[in-house]
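cron nightly-structures :: item 1 of 1
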Amino acid sequence: MKSIALIGAGFSGLGMAYALKKEILEFDHYEKNPALGGNWRYGVYETVHIISSKKTTSFQEYPMPSSYPDFPSSGQMLAYLESYADTFHLKENIQFDSDIIDISPHGERWILTFSGGEKKIYEFVIIANGHHWDPKYPDIKGSFDGEIIHSKDYKNPEILKNKRVLVIGGGNSALDIAVEAARFSISSHISMKSGRWIIPKSIFGIPSIEFLQPWIPDPLLRQLVQNLVLLEIGSFEKYGLQNPDYTVLDKHPTINSLFLYYLQHGRIVPHKNIESVRGNTFTFVDGSQYEADLLVCGTGFHMSFPMLQSLDLRYSSRGIPELINGLFPRKYKNLILFGGVGQPRYGAGPVISAAAGLVAKLLPIQKEIQLSLGELFFRMGQNPLESEVIDPFTTMRRAEALGKMTGFLPFLDQVLRMPFLEGLYKHRENDIMKKFNLPAPQKNYPETNRKANSAFTNSYK
């Protein structure tokens, strides 16, 4: 029996599998579905293309083919993941049709219960099941006589034909489906409860997402993106939309050029929030009305982990699990929730590569320390995600920094569990090392040494 269980073989799960294999860590890999690909095989609609570019979406270790367009289709994305799995020989380790219904603690190990009743015990569990599968539905006053679907269930334009369509939401799926409805339905209307920053897919012929660069300070980056968007499209009010009530990049980017095009041509009609519905008639907060046959809810997803119902996972007021660095629960050792919390405001590949590489390096270290990785990093000053939006550059820099500290973490574990930490910290660093019979880090880990000092200070402030 291997000591690591990896759950999920979508984008995140495959990236994690590569990292574990690179670190020569043996693991069992489980996938609920009969094939790999996750959302790119089972969750997206036929006409979808990525909104981030191929350059920013590729895994760091495996660029997309040069023959791919800037914005690959769902079919090309799936072919890319298949090729990735073949190139690094990941498929032969995946056990498909493996539905895990419960994960429960068993001392410092974990019991996995499968839908067929089988149970297996592992030392480490990494959950990479994504978050685009548990749909949120809006709470609307009244009763609708027409058909209701979630954007997750939308697969092709056939369902739109000969219907009056109302889409709810302001995210990428909502805008995409409103555009599809503008082309294939009788009429396309959209209800957005608040304004959104809608960013064109390309600005000056360059994929918009590629203007996000790690060397640009965050305040300057936000101002740059805001100015570029306003220069390209002007005021949102001239499209009949509400102005955004948040700073650009504070939410996951909504990227769409055709939506604004169809608004200008009258093929999409925007509305504010829905007040109520009666029969087929929707009434909006401004008093306007629209009769619809089909309601499409592009209202996002819950971040759900049903197999962890027996655990005491804390959630923020925004429904986000309180995981340190978006990965590690404080309360539980040897459990990592990978890739199912938050969305990067960038392509996913580089973030997955960086985070997966960090996790693979940390698993052997967890065996040597008493604190959970989540608790250890919390005492070092790391925090849970405050938003569903992940800053990719912060994540990658943090992963690199923590990766350099792996050899130092057992020492930190000892120090950060001591009630006399403050007094201990006053000793010279070499004296601290000598006290625990540990090698001084200065020669081998100069950057680690600086970060450790900061961690010591933050832990008792």
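cron nightly-structures :: done
The chain has 14 helices and 25 strands.
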